[in-house]
Design brief:
Blueprint: H1 17-29, H2 38-58, H3 65-75, H4 79-82, H5 93-132, H6 138-145, E1 150-156, E2 159-164, E3 172-175, H7 182-192, E4 196-200, H8 205-214, E5 220-223, H9 239-250, H10 259-263, H11 265-278, H12 282-290, H13 294-304, H14 306-312, H15 322-335, H16 342-346, E6 360-363, H17 367-373, H18 376-389, E7 397-401, H19 404-407, H20 412-418, E8 424-430, H21 434-440, H22 442-450, E9 454-457, H23 463-473, E10 475-484, E11 487-496, H24 500-504, E12 510-514, E13 519-523, E14 541-545, E15 548-552, E16 558-562, E17 569-571
Parallel strand pairs: 3-8, 3-9, 4-6, 4-7, 5-6, 7-8
Antiparallel strand pairs: 1-2, 9-12, 10-11, 12-13, 14-15, 15-16, 16-17
Helix pairs in contact: 2-3, 2-5, 7-8, 11-12, 11-13, 11-14, 12-15, 13-14, 20-22, 21-22
Length: about 600
């Protein structure tokens, strides 16, 4: 992908800039602790006094130089009226009266200056504490983290800072409520990431916006119209790989009582043995068995895989016990959601060298089908990640997972901790942090969040996310002012730099960014310009499921849906153009 041309240069989003600047001044300049203009006032009075002294010194040339200087500095402007002629004039009552009148505001200024100096010390201590906790103005991030090829984390006055591709700098988490523009960040990231990428794109908006330019980097693939044979990445002859395929595909790790799912592992072993003997694709065997009765499937499997079948039936193929039938029911219920999408995960349209070719793979299953298909997306992503881990050459690859909760990646905490060394960067998107806990549980969710080295939070309405950001952003030095009679005093205390309530009311285009050694606030990432998708090879694919069938065009459009009872095709309107959606109206300026 080439750099933006003059006509494609990014137009900075100036909306809410004033609010964001005030937020940055409050967080990093600490204008709330700045003393009033006492310093400027004191300097003005001092210069005024010295000016009068200089004039008095010039108008008394007959006096001895030291005496003349002493009188000029002491009397200043009053010397113009007294016109001192000797040392006795130092004791003149009128001179002292004038001196008292002039020194009174000076004394008041000194008192005010002492208070201002103390408050200025608070500012120094506040900046020191902020530096110790890693809080810095986004302008400092531009000096060391300006990004041209990589993942942008934020913007400041139209310039981006972020993670450079190839730096092995860790993974990225983006948390934003719906309609807050997190899709803009993904679009901006795909504009600047100039390497291979896998993009989970349930709305198909990223394909529409970015694939046109990314075609200059390498081939463009779009699932489900193209296929990826996951058995090219899982070695079914390896017991560990087969177990991982079984766990990921059937999502057994989510079961509260996995005993029935675990027993059905023998069915996978039987399908593997039959695939070895007949050359038929193992997943097609499993799909055929899931669509038939247990006795028929067991009889077929026993011809080529007597050992696994005997283990599954407890040695009695003629009369299946309740445990065996429950396990069979669990297998068919889980695999029947995968079977309609079998072509996508068994057809090798995408070569295993896709990362070396700089390819971009867009996975465009709608969210409703992802929820229904269970482990479909998880097994596709896991297979592509495994391929990169076993590649002979490290290819820096981005895995951008929109709607991470729906993807339900198996062993996500382990992947985040290990795949970085293979050139893989995972960028995940959530609506709120509680979604991780709902899928993975409390302990695993905490480990997953900790393994994201870079975190971006948009203004959130979720209290849990707001409290997390507030704690992570750290504390600051705050001052309180108390009054006693006509005097006022100041005291220090430590408080949250960003209260949860403040996070909920941030400007809509503001973000809070955390990296390894930096915490800052910035403006959200905005794309450069609108792009168009390239044409794909003409191909249609029909997906059958319990509610009927769906026919997809090559570019991911739904051509028609068929109801199961009538069998009549019902034309489905194409989804609206990307620029017509509410979220995208504020993308391009």
């Amino acid at each position: 992908m080439t750099s933006p041309t003059a006509s494609q240069k990014q137009v900075p989003d100036t909306r809410h800039r004033g609010k964001i600047d005030r937020l940055l001044n409050r967080l990093f300049r600490r204008h709330d602790l700045q003393p009033p203009a006492f310093t400027r006032l004191g300097a003005g009075i001092g210069l005024f006094w010295l000016g009068g002294a200089a004039l008095a010194y010039l108008l008394a040339p007959a006096l001895e130089p030291k005496l003349r200087l002493k009188l000029a500095l002491l009397h200043s402007w009053s010397a113009l009226f007294l016109q001192p002629s000797g040392a006795a004039d130092l004791k003149s009552p009128l001179a002292w009266a004038i001196l008292a009148v002039v020194l009174l505001p000076v004394a008041l200024q000194l008192l005010a200056f002492g208070t201002a100096a103390k408050r200025a010390l608070y500012v120094v201590e506040a900046h020191k504490l902020a530096r110790q906790q890693g809080r810095r103005h986004p302008a400092s991030a531009l000096e060391t983290r300006a990004v041209k090829d990589g993942i942008p984390l934020g913007e400041y006055r139209g310039r981006r800072f972020g993670v450079t591709r190839g730096a092995d700098a860790g993974h990225v988490l983006v948390v934003a409520p719906t309609r807050m523009g997190k899709g803009l960040h993904l679009t901006g990231s795909l504009e600047t990431w100039r390497g291979a990428a896998v993009i989970v794109d349930p709305k198909r908006e990223q394909y529409q916006r970015t694939s046109g330019d990314r075609a200059s980097l390498g081939p463009i693939y779009c699932l489900p119209q193209h296929g990826v044979d996951i058995l090219q990445y899982y070695n079914i002859n390896d017991t560990l790989d087969l177990q991982e395929l079984f766990t990921t595909l059937l999502q057994t790790w989510e079961d509260k009582d996995p005993i029935f799912s675990q027993k059905s592992y023998a069915i996978f072993e039987a399908a593997r043995d039959q695939s070895r003997a007949t050359g038929e694709h193992m997943l097609k065997i499993l799909a055929r068995w899931a669509d038939t009765s247990a006795p028929v499937a067991i009889k077929e499997g026993a011809q080529h895989a007597p050992g696994p079948i005997a283990k599954f039936t407890d040695g009695d193929m003629e009369e299946l016990n309740r445990f065996t039938m429950s396990a069979w029911g669990t297998f068919t219920a889980k695999f029947s959601t995968i079977a309609p999408h079998l072509a996508t995960i068994s057809r090798a349209d995408i070569p295993t060298t896709w990362a070396e070719q700089g390819a971009s793979i867009y996975i465009c299953y709608p969210l409703d089908q992802l929820e229904a298909a269970g482990g479909l997306l998880s097994v596709i992503l896991s297979a592509l990640i495994k391929g990169q881990q076993r590649a002979l050459k490290k290819n820096y690859t981005l895995f951008a997972v929109d709607e991470l909760r729906a993807s339900r990646l198996h062993a996500l905490d382990t992947k985040l901790a290990t795949v970085g060394g293979y050139g893989i960067t995972i960028m995940a998107y959530l609506q709120q942090l509680s979604q991780l806990r709902d899928v993975y549980g409390n302990d695993a969710a905490a480990s997953i969040i900790g393994n994201f080295h870079h975190q971006i939070f948009y203004p959130t309405r979720d209290n849990e996310s707001a409290e997390y950001v507030s704690r992570k952003f750290g504390t600051e030095v705050q001052t309180t002012r108390s009054y006693g009679g006509e005097s006022a005093s100041y005291a220090q205390q430590i408080g949250a730099a960003l209260e949860p309530a403040m996070i909920n009311t941030l400007p809509p285009t503001a973000t809070i960014v955390f990296t390894d050694d930096l915490a800052t606030a910035a403006q959200r990432v905005n794309p450069f310009t609108k792009r168009h998708a390239p044409p794909l090879p003409p191909r249609e694919i029909t997906v059958r499921y319990a509610g009927g069938t769906t026919v997809y065009a090559a570019d991911g459009r739904v051509i028609a849906r068929t109801k199961p009872k009538s069998g009549a095709a019902v034309p489905a309107p194409n989804p609206p153009a990307v620029a017509e959606t509410e979220e995208d109206e504020d993308i391009f300026f």
